[in-house]
């Protein structure tokens, strides 16, 4: 069948594909499967919407249903994933909703690792949105792109090779650079995500830190699971077993807070006996676990050595150790990105 994707919708063999309220599907003579999502409702609760109005995937009930697609579309697919999934032309404001809908469709099995996910590029965008949705496995194609969809070669023109299933990404940057938000966006459309928080617990008198933590929590999609643990090596190490990984992506935020906890625990600040050897063992374990972790793993770390040399011995110790840990994690990473002022620079 001949498929055309435009900002106005999707046509199959010259006829606009009917999509009902949320999605539509078509199957070619050779079995090639196409799903088109017409609209995505907000991926987070709208103001005044109760939790009862939300699906398990965080999509309002009147949008993409919790099981991923309407019953009539599921009937067309017959339990098989789509070869091509066409999403609505994105806008910057709708990106969280788009990511939430895609994650829901992936959890429902509508889209698999082999599904080509495309959307028409909005006019005048200049590639800005394309860079934001690329980590989700979404390609923006020129308005009016047309191709013949076949089961033997269903992809739209220009599809690159799929990303490997195991991928470790280190995201680094100074304080308030936007590194955490960038890292969260990398995994925003993953069907299942575990957030590994290694920061210190908030005390009753530290309101400022509590507000920081609350802001991070509020940004995370509703379907993400959180694990609070200082033992990052154990959490990462469990992912060496594919069955244990459970096809769940993982975001570790942050390396600096983990190192602070290690230094506290071994008594480094008070020059406790053998503290240095204990830190070495912890660093070796976490680097080894990160380098061998299965699935898609993103770690967020801090750059603390850009200014003057710290005035205190503890400050110099922390800066030196974190700089070394960052280098070792970068060495075993598949990708390394530096974030400064909300802008990114790929280092690997």
List the helices and strands and how they pair.
Blueprint: E1 2-6, E2 9-12, E3 15-16, E4 23-27, E5 33-37, H1 71-77, E6 84-86, H2 95-107, E7 116-120, H3 128-133, E8 138-141, E9 145-148, E10 167-173, H4 179-186, E11 193-197, H5 207-219, E12 225-228, H6 232-237, H7 242-245, E13 249-253, H8 255-266, H9 275-292, E14 296-302, H10 313-331, E15 335-340, E16 343-346
Parallel strand pairs: 5-6, 6-7, 7-8, 10-14, 10-15, 11-12, 11-13, 13-14
Antiparallel strand pairs: 1-2, 1-9, 2-3, 4-5, 15-16
Helix pairs in contact: 8-9, 8-10
Describe this structure in words.
- The structure is a single chain.
- The longest helix has 19 residues, at about 315-330.
- This protein has 2 domains: about 1-150, no CATH class; about 165-345, Rossmann fold, CATH 3.40.50.
- It has helices at about 70-75, 95-105, 130-135, 180-185, 205-220, 230-235, 240-245, 255-265, 275-290, 315-330, and strands at about 1-5, 10, 15, 25, 35, 85, 115-120, 140, 145-150, 165-175, 195, 225-230, 250-255, 295-300, 335-340, 345.
- Helix 8 packs antiparallel against helix 9 (about 275-290) and helix 8 (about 255-265) packs across helix 10.
- The protein is of the alpha/beta class and about 350 residues long.
- It starts with a strand and ends with a strand.
- The chain has 10 helices and 16 strands.
- About 30% of the residues lie in helices and about 20% in strands.
- The strands form 3 sheets. A 7-stranded mixed β-sheet has the order 12-11-13-14-10-15-16, with helices on both faces.
- Mean pLDDT is about 85; it is low at about 40-65 and about 240-245.
């Amino acid at each position: 069948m001949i498929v055309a994707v435009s900002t106005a919708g999707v046509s199959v063999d010259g006829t606009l594909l009917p999509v009902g309220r949320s999605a539509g599907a078509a199957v070619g003579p050779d079995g090639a499967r196409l799903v088109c999502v017409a609209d995505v409702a907000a991926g987070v609760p709208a103001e005044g919407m109760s939790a009862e109005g939300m699906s398990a995937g965080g999509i309002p009930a009147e949008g993409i249903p919790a099981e991923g697609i309407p019953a009539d579309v599921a009937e067309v697919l017959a339990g098989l994933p789509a070869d091509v999934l066409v999403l609505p032309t994105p806008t910057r404001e709708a990106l969280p909703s788009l990511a939430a809908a895609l994650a829901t469709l992936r959890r429902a099995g509508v889209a698999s690792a082999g599904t080509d996910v495309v959307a028409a590029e909005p006019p005048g965008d200049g590639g800005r949105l394309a860079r934001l949705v690329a980590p989700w496995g979404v390609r923006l194609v020129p308005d009016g792109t047309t191709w013949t969809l076949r089961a033997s070669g269903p992809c739209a023109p220009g599809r690159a090779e799929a990303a490997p299933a195991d991928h470790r990404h280190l995201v680094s940057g100074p304080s308030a650079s936007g590194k955490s938000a960038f890292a969260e966006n990398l995994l925003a459309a993953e069907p299942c995500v575990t957030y590994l928080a290694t920061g210190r617990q908030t005390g009753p008198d530290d309101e400022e830190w509590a507000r920081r933590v609350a802001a991070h929590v509020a940004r995370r999609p509703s379907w993400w699971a959180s694990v609070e643990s200082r033992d990052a090596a154990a959490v990462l190490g469990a992912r060496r077993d594919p069955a244990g990984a459970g096809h769940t992506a993982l975001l570790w935020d942050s390396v600096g807070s983990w190192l602070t906890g290690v230094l506290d625990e071994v008594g480094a600040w008070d020059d406790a006996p053998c503290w240095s050897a204990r830190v070495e063992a912890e660093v070796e374990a976490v680097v080894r676990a990160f380098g061998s972790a299965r699935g898609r793993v993103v770690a967020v770390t801090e750059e603390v050595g850009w200014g003057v040399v710290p005035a205190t011995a503890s400050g110099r110790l922390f800066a030196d150790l974190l700089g070394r840990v960052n280098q070792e994690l970068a060495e075993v990473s598949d990708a390394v990105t530096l974030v400064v002022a909300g802008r990114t620079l790929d280092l690997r």
